């Protein structure tokens, strides 16, 4: 059995991910290709720019509200690099379009001695029941999804009443100042509309809508809360 098959055996796969078209198809191929180098280059970049990966990730992961033993979903988890910063006593779920990224994630989980349920699926069509997660977040990706509004609706659908949703992605400054200039990858980020912080994607009726720039204006962090009774924290 090849390493690829062995690594993918515990990832639940949904066929629409491999059949993704438009920007989703384009970025799935790109992430499959760069998956083996993604962490190394990211870690180097975070160290040079933000004083390390922990400092970078804490800026938005500290926004998450995670009850002990809570059911936590990261949409577009990639290689799982946020997972080591989350508490250990949780029921962790990570979903991504790219099998290449998820295979690396699976290897990371083994190395970190952590477990998570992984899914290769589209953020725009989450394979989960309504009102089933205590914590729902998304880091990186939504700016270039086929349908960001549908992803946000799906995050809201699967979150329990009262849940705080956290969405993080790059600003135009990072996309045009850095991404477009990266060899081999840069062309994927050209010929596109300018990035705007997608406040208009927050569905009507959501509470405590807040947005702030982080990482010196290179990223944004958008948060809001579903109406209803918030989970009890002890
Ligand atoms: C910049 S990476 C972020 C990975 C991780 N969240 C992190 O913080 O390092 C963006 C991820 O979004 C995934 N992605 C892109 N489009 C997607 C879609 N429509 N549905 C689900 N995942 C998607 C890519 O495969 C990639 O792994």
Give your account of this protein's structure.
With 234 residues, this protein is an alpha/beta fold. The protein has a single domain, classed as Vaccinia Virus protein VP39 (Rossmann fold, 3-Layer(aba) Sandwich). The protein is 34% helix and 19% strand. The protein has helices spanning 3-8, 15-18, 22-50, 53-61, 99-112, 148-158, 172-177, and strands spanning 11-13, 71-75, 91-96, 117-120, 135-139, 164-170, 207-214, 219-225. It has an eight-stranded mixed sheet with strand order 1-4-3-2-5-6-8-7, sandwiched between helices. Strand 7 (207-214) and strand 8 form a beta hairpin. Helix 3 (22-50) packs across helix 5 (99-112). It starts with a helix and ends in a 9-residue tail after the last strand. Residues 1-8 have low confidence and may be disordered. The protein binds S-adenosylmethionine. S-adenosylmethionine is lined by residues 24, 27, 31, 76-78, 81-82, 96-98, 101, 122-124, 139-141, 145.
Structure summary:
With 234 residues, this protein is an alpha/beta fold. It has seven helices and eight strands. The protein has helices spanning 3-8, 15-18, 22-50, 53-61, 99-112, 148-158, 172-177, and strands at 11-13, 71-75, 91-96, 117-120, 135-139, 164-170, 207-214, 219-225.
Helix count from the secondary structure assignment = 7
Order of helices and strands: HEHHHEEHEEHEHEE
Mean pLDDT: 90
CATH-defined topology: Rossmann fold
Outline the biggest β-sheet.
8 strands, mixed
Output the keywords.
single chain; 234 residues; alpha/beta; Rossmann fold; eight-stranded mixed sheet; 7 helices; disordered N terminus
């Amino acid at each position: 059995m090849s390493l690829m098959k062995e690594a993918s055996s515990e990832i639940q796969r949904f066929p629409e991910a491999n059949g993704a078209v438009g920007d989703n198809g384009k970025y799935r191929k790109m992430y499959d290709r760069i998956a083996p180098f993604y962490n190394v280059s990211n870690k180097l970049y975070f160290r040079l720019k933000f004083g390390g990966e922990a400092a970078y990730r804490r800026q938005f992961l500290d926004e998450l509200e995670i009850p002990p033993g809570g059911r936590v979903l990261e949409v577009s988890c990639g290689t799982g690099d946020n997972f080591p910063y989350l508490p250990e006593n949780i029921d962790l779920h990570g979903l991504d379009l790219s099998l290449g990224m998820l295979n690396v994630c699976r290897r990371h989980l083994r190395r970190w001695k952590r477990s998570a349920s992984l899914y290769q699926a589209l953020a725009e069509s989450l394979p989960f029941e309504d009102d089933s997660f205590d914590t729902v977040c998304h880091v990186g990706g939504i700016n270039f999804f086929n349908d960001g509004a549908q992803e946000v609706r799906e995050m809201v659908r699967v979150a329990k009443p009262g849940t705080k949703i956290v969405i993080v992605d790059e600003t135009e400054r990072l996309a045009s100042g850095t991404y477009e200039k990266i060899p081999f990858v840069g062309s994927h980020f050209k010929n596109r509309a300018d990035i705007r912080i997608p406040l208009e994607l927050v569905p009507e009726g959501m509470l405590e809508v807040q947005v702030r720039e982080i990482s010196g204006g290179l990223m944004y962090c958008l948060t809001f809360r579903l109406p209803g009774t918030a989970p009890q924290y002890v």
